[in-house]
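User: Predict Beta-glucosidase/6-phospho-beta-glucosidase/beta-galactosidase's structure from this.
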Amino acid sequence: MKQRFPENFLWGASTSAYQVEGAAITHGKGLSQQDFINNNRSEKFGFADTSIASDHYHHFKEDIRLFKEMGFTSYRFSIAWSRIFPKGDHQVNEEGLQFYRDSIAELKANDIEPIPTLYHYDLPWPLVEKYEGWLSREVVEDFGYFAKFVVNEFKNDVKYWITINEQSIIVQYWTQKCYVPEKYQNQNQLRYQINHHMNLAQALAVKYIHEVGGLAGPALGYAPVYARTCKPEDQLAALNANDLRNFYYLDVYFKGYYTDAAFNYLKQHQLAPEIFDDDETLFSQNISDFLAVNYYDSQCAHACPEGADHAWSGYNLTGKKGDMSGFETHPGFYQMCPNPELRTTDWDWAIDPIGLEIVYRDLYTRYRIPFMITENGLGARDELTSDGKVHDDYRIAYLREHIAATQRAMGLGVQVLGYMPWSALDLLSTSNGYNKRYGLIYVDRTDDDPKTCQRIKKDSFNWYKKVIASNGTDL
Ligand code: BGP
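Assistant:
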């Protein structure tokens, strides 16, 4: 039976600051680690850098007009720490703060619920210079200051706050999502140490959000892990992978402690973070209210012998199927592998709407929390055709199937507050510049030529408008 979405269901889409705003080191903004990382990637691979990105900083009113035209009732974006505190200290950049005041006011004037993320990979660069950023526990206090300031500033306008974006993905792809000096890049325990500092920072954010009566949710990049076969050893490997890749994060957010098996495995392999006695008390006193789910794909694992070499997740940088560079391997625990049962995108991401249904059902039973989809989408090389349009029927098919999966889960009692796919408009991909696009709105630029960043409605724009107008009944 088709489930109707509730009348107050939040329909919208997502972006993040450094991927969309531009004005990276102008208008008082300080350099962030992402500006630095993407400058290097630009030199090395030819991808665009963050200096202009989609120029949302100068187009935000036009963008919000287009969101309104699509019928958005919510918009998830992030607030760049280095735009508000360019040096990472307590000195405010008034112009940067005003940008977010204006953006939030514009959203509210259009009846669009602003859903800000406090941290989306973009640590102020001066904190890297000062104490090596997230590698140091000192960062927790600085993040706490920033979070408290922003939460107090916007407490009357914001109900739902996203705390930190995708800690699990930061652990997997740490040098891309975080600046890690070369001398540390083979010290893999630091991946989990950084994550521990982020857990402390996220708990502080939850505390400040609760103090002003808001609701807090971390955004987790979530991919359920299937076993490659029904052999018991592969089933156990999948359980291990889910423990270390997924529940290791969720248990901290929603139970206040680390998953035992995963933490002990890390300890046995000298990868566990150093934690202080009171750390888990801070977690358990600041439990999150909802989970912001970033769902793109599912994963697959099989058993792995104790003697195998440790390996970390690889990625596909070319957009040519099969160009995946490696699979995470934890000896004696699990090894990731492709799933032969699923179609993939050109970047080898498995397309699996039923996987989203599994996520909802499994996590609702385990934690009984409401969900909000804050990312879900298909990365593709969109083409602006001679009729001046972008015919992205592949994206429509992807989104349609995931909305239908959401409907089915809601029909069985799962609570979902809203659906905000990635991305509202084309933006700088974290891995592939403008070569890989996700937007409902096309931004006319290439990696080497920013042109005018003209906005063009894709076919998915018109389709999504119809979905929202029918409150999800006309898919
Ligand atoms: C998520 C990030 C986003 C986004 C998306 C797509 O992990 O939160 O910032 O970019 O993935 O990833 P990519 O751009 O690498 O295709």
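Residues 10-226+240-296+344-469 form a domain with the TIM Barrel fold (CATH 3.20.20.80).
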